[in-house]
Design brief:
- With 270 residues, this protein is an all-alpha fold.
- Helix content is 73%, strand content 0%.
- The protein has helices at residues 2-15, 23-57, 66-72, 74-89, 93-118, 129-149, 153-174, 179-186, 193-196, 200-203, 209-232, 252-266.
- Helix 2 (23-57) packs antiparallel against helix 4 (74-89), helix 4 (74-89) packs across helix 5 (93-118) and helix 5 runs antiparallel to helix 6.
- It is globular.
- The N and C termini lie far apart (74 Å).
Length: 270
Amino acid sequence: EYMGTLLFMLEAILLWPGLWPLDANLRWIEQMAPIAVAYSAGFTLYTLFRIAAKTLSGVERVRDSAFLSEVNAAPITGMISYLFVVAVLNVSVHMVAMTLWWSVGFWASVYAVVSTARRGKRVNWIPVRVPISWACKLCYLWMMWVFYVFEMPVCMFAFSIWIMIDQVGRLFTMLDADRTRRTFDDAWLFRLLYPLGLFLPMTSEMPYRAPFAAFGAFVFALWVLGLVYVVRAGQLLKLPAEAATLRNMMYFDTLDTLEVESEASKKPSD
């Protein structure tokens, strides 16, 4: 009884009053979500190709690529940006807040990175890294809650597939445990939702349930194998080798220090 009351109050806070009129747009996003899953299937094949190429080349790891990370997320970014525009047009304060960082925040970050890079400089993210980190975390949880309330399992599955394919690529090509390592660092256990979401087709009614269930299980198996690969290499809790993407912003000051020390070690001693 108390749990039911708590859930009702949470729904009232997060969903009322601006979100309910946008029900039709949320339903449309759910209908389009299989396209995002299909896109991720194609990106999975590309990731497997990159893993094979890296293995055959004999290199220990490849360089990080912010571009590839964002290309992987293209359908998700498009969906959230669409929801943001719809929210603005419908004057839905709650929906605007929910999608703000993963839409406007994303495009603003891209602009900041590109514009400063053209001037030969780099954005100093350190002063704002904590607010950005929390914005990413809380907006993700907010969206998952909304998708759950509106019975949108394909959207939830699409998010997990996107995130976990990215993790598989990082594990095998960069020896970077990324989100797993960060969970040990900050104890943000909600990251467990990423791999758990891969099993939604086995527990929820959705279109293409059988192929989606097989796809989710395949990606989960790849992720586990990737973790084993990184653990055997002794890299599970090691910091990333470079500060190439915003995902590492919480380590930027440490990584910058390591880079300076590394460059200094390469110079001949007097």
